[in-house]
Amino acid sequence: MSAPPPVPPADAPRPSSAPRPGVAPHLRVAMSSKRMTWLAAASLVPALGLGVALYGVPALMVTGASLLCALAAELATTLPWRRFTLADGSAALTGLIIGLVLPAGAPLYVPAAASAFGILVIKQSFGGLGRNWMNPAMGGVVFATLSWPGAASWSIAPLGWPAGAALTPLQALRAALSMPGSHQATPLAVLEKAGYSFSGLDSGVVGWINTHLLSPAGLALRQGTLDVFIGHVPGAIGASAPLLALGAAYLLHRRVIRWQLPVIYLGSFVVLSLVFGGLASGQGWSAGGPGFHLLSGNLVLAAFYAAPDPVTSPLTGTGKWILGVVLGALTFLLRYFGSLGDGAAAAIVLGNCLTPLLDLWTFRRPEAASRGAA
Amino acid sequence: MMYPTKLLKGGIDPPSVTTVPPGSAIVNAALPSRALIPLLQHAGAPARCLVKPGDLVREGMIIGRAEGLRSAHVHASIPGVVREVRPFTLPTGESCEAVTIELGGSFETSGKPTVRRAWDGLHRADLLQKIRAAGVVGLGGESLPTHLKLAADAGRAVSLLAANGLDCEPSLSVDAALLRQKPAEIVEGLRICQSLLSPRRTVLALGDHSEELVGEFERLIDRCGMTAEVLVLPARYPQGHEQLVASAISGTPPGADPTVTVLNVATLLAVFDAVVLERPLIERVMTVTGSTLSRPQNLKVRLGARVGDLLEECGGQPATQKVVMGGPMRGVSVQSLDLPVTKGTLGILALGASEARAPAELPCIRCGACIEACPWGLAPTRLFKLVRIGKATAAFREGLSRCTECGCCSYVCPSRIPLSSILGQGKLRHSREATR
Q1: Which of these, A229, A293, A362, B400, is most buried using a 10 Å CB contact count?
Q2: Chain A hits for B359, Cβ within 8 Å
Q3: Is-contact B323 B337, C-beta < 8 A?
Q4: H or E segment to which residue A77 belongs
């Protein structure tokens, strides 16, 4: 071996405090994959906090169910083999993401099944952390959404909204656009015409801004601008794009995730929405409302927390660029032309299937390899 | 600063363990009262022992004669009596004989006025013989006998002779210190090598820590009427690797041009000593540093000195948990403080508890950090999986042969997988399969 265990001379007197052995290099970067995972989980706490504040106990129940079920599934598949992997944080992160992606009104079997499927089928059956080829959280969510399309999208009204079950703005938009004659320039205009009402907070703040700041300039914000922006709408528990982006910014700063995949993903989605978005509903060019769609659903969460998952994204830079564009395009197609969910989770799942091929196509073997062993 | 264009891709910028400022003086270590001199301090076969217990040896006397092509002479580093000749295992796992000399008698060269011998009129073969007789080997870590590198065949034109002034590992500042303290000798050594090889181009490459020395070296080179350039390369690890230095200077891919000769500046100094002072290689400069030392410094050490004594001389503390011979990236951790330093010892690191803790390995998460860090364009994450499932041959098809075990991949791996050591095992297994 080139780095064999150092053999002390047999007859050398060994000092009582003999130095410890170890293979080179003797320095390591501080950031471990374990710490990366836990940092990612911690950076989701603000979004979870807002979700709990808006939905109360139901939000805690849903996230608790997904989290506990993910941990239990991980334990069930490791303890019999005398391994303990909860400390790596991967199961906890999966459970947390699943909880944040689901609406607070979902019956508890939905998050439980999503987590169980994600951990048991997608991750552990392929060999555990690092061996899965699909993002466990997104795969679990897609599984649950396809299994119980209704239950998995039962949104309830957040704090400050009229109580009871409520359509998400995305669902309302889809319903309104399917009616003839509802076509307006932007999604918020469509919603306004369809009579979809936002919270009192939104009408107050937007009204004040319109009267005091924008009316002199002849401008006006649509009803719902504030609610959609901060994620104060019926929908997923972790729907607050600004808080998610804040957590993601921290992860980017600590280099837990890299900017390439999320930025290319969101960028290509925005460009496609801007250019072709209006065509989907017959509103014409440039009427897709990329801002509304960027902030709705789980797009931001998927872009920063599922797409750059190192296990299921390509190894090479070129591969990451290609996957980013593919994810943007798939999300765009599913969002504007699909009928189920918000498109982000399904796009990630489909994109993950491409990763092995992208690795194969984009990895350039070093020059010496073709010359044979040097 | 304008750098040449063909710099290394990847590589790392690790926080160095306590450094020794290159400007601080090189300190002469105390003479060892006993020297334990292994007869394998070079690339080839061990030298043949010429002494037996009870023999009196003078300082600088040959005690081991080179055996075979890649072997080099080994000299007595201190005068005295041979106490013991016994089998010995080096920290790298190789075995050879080792001679123990107990200090005694008088010094014939140390402390005496130096006589400079002119070498300009000497024949090539005589120059090479002087270098060979002095037991000079590469002091940058590879330990190949230097006369082999300088004995270019008449038919082979040397395209580039490069003096490598970049320390080969982070935390080590041997070359940087020598550049500051022995500039004239280094330039003279380079001139000797140039006259032997007649290269088309001669370059002295400095690390960017030594940027301020460019003017001085250009003056020195001008004064002796030599044609040579001085270049500055970034001191990012592993830019100091022989092939990467050559590649940065010549602009060709690493290893593509076999007519390049790279010599480390410490080696040039040994060439100067061998030819001008007729002194054999019996001491070398090494960086003794680490978080548990109170006085890290660059020491000039007699070969065969005990590691433990040198650590003590640099203020060793009981907090030392791990001792590494060499640098932090490629050094070998040793379990005995009684090991001797040899020609290939670049430094000694004394590490504390937090650095000595072997990190627990986690599953590979395919983050690709190792691919970004690999200076040879390899994908360690793929290679280590192939090696672990016993497919070393498949790994070779993906370029494993280019791995130099620089350790960049292991350093950046967030899952703490000992990638470079696994790749090293794979290379070894493959070569065993090939020879079988």
Answers
A1: B400
A2: 28, 32
A3: yes
A4: helix A57-78
Q: What is the pLDDT of residues A31-90, one digit of tens each?
A: 999 999 999 999 999 999 999 999 999 999 999 999 999 999 999 999 999 999 999 999
* Short-list B159, B238, B164, CA closest to B201: B159
Chain A: nearest CA to B282, how far in angstroms? 23
* Coil, helix or strand at residue A192: helix
Residue type at B110 in one-letter notation: S
Q: What sign does the CA torsion over A267, A270, A276, A280 have?
A: positive
Which of A268, A261, A287 has the alpha carbon at shortest distance from A332?
A268
Instruction: For residue B227, give both structure tokens.
Output: 């044609």
> Would A230 be classed as within a structural domain?
no
Q: Is the pTM of this model over 0.80?
A: yes
Architecture of domain B27-112+280-355: Roll (3.10)
Domain with A264 in it: 257-362
Q: Do A36 and B414 touch (CB under 8 A)?
A: yes
Q: Nearest chain B Cα to A6, which residue? A: B91
Choose one of A101, A132, A153: the last residue of a domain: A153
Please state at what angle helix B265-275 crosses helix B183-197, rounded to 10 degrees: 80
The domain boundary, picked from A114, A136, A153, lies at A153
CA angle A130, A136, A140 (to 5 degrees): 165
Choose which CATH entry (3.10.450.50, 3.40.50.280, 3.40.50.300, 3.40.50.11540) describes domain B124-275: 3.40.50.11540
ipTM of the complex: 0.84
User: B225 vs A268, B187, B215, B382, CA distance in Å?
Assistant: 62, 11, 15, 52
For chain B, which ranges sit under pLDDT 50? 1
Two structure tokens written together for A272: 């496609």
Measured CA to CA, the distance from residue B107 to residue B115 in angstroms comes to 16
Are A20 and B356 within 8 A, CB to CB? yes
**B376 to chain A: nearest residue by CA?**
A366
Q: What does the alpha-carbon distance between residue A235 and residue B178 come to, in Å, rounded to a whole number?
A: 68
| Residue among B88, B396, B405 whose CB faces A373 most closely | B396
Residue B428 CA to residue B1 CA, distance in Å, equals: 41
Q: Do A4 and B320 touch (CB under 8 A)?
A: no
DSSP 8-state symbol, A134: S
